[in-house]
Amino acid sequence: MRAEATGWLIALRDTTGSTWDDACCRADLSPEEERRAERFLRAAAAVTYVRGRSAVRRVLGHVLGEPPSQVRIAAAPHGGPILPDHPDRRVSWSTTAGVLLVAVSRNARIGVDVEVLRPVGSPAEVLGTFYPDVDTLGEFRESETFFSAWTLLEAAVKATGRGLARGARQVRLHRPPDTNRCALAEIRDADEMAWSGRTDRFPVPGSSAEVMTAFVTSGTCVPLWLHTWRMPTVAGSPAGDVAQPGPGVVS
Predict the structure, then answer these.
(1) Alpha-carbon gap, residue 9 to 75, rounded angstroms
(2) Looking at the domain assignment, is residue 29 inside a domain?
(3) Is residue 128 classed exposed, middle or buried when 0-12, 13-18 and 19+ CB atoms within 10 A define those classes?
(4) What are phi and psi of 49, to 5 degrees?
(5) Residue 187 within any structural domain of the chain
């Protein structure tokens, strides 16, 4: 069966384009997620967590055709999320400063990451902590250079299940000529699979911030639909804007 992936980029604090009903969001959570929400010391952090986990569950419920609260999410041995009742599906998500990126794939391993673009002190040194070939990427004069590399690394090690400390050394990035953004070249020793990666940059609704997103999937030219800034509808096709397609991406 054909491999494919769908992602949603969601602003968890945006009240202009979305109306959040936090009581309904809590009703989507599992008992363990509910207990974790109660352990937050800051109310704002608890709200962000509840909205994020509810959004993940609503995306999964939309894709799988199940009530969000009934979707079973478990932890794999490496710590990443798995869907025990749907072995042909993979899920990955990431949050940063009130922004959630979640993706579900069919017949392909997937990892995602999202980061707010911001100044980073000594970016080459920070990246070099995990990525020994940092010198091959040139100078880090723009935050886009660092965050495209960083999000691809994070997404890649989520997709392989190896973690940053070990998995990042198996990832090879490159920087195309005359560009500020890094790209995925390959993942070495990853079950001899072919891998593809994609990064995008988006302004955050109701904010002056921008985010960098990264998707890494097993296989080449895996179709990816990326829906921005709205939750999926309860039934039918997802609502929201669709990102401009890149190589191997179908919209």
Answers:
(1) 23
(2) no
(3) middle
(4) -65, -45
(5) yes
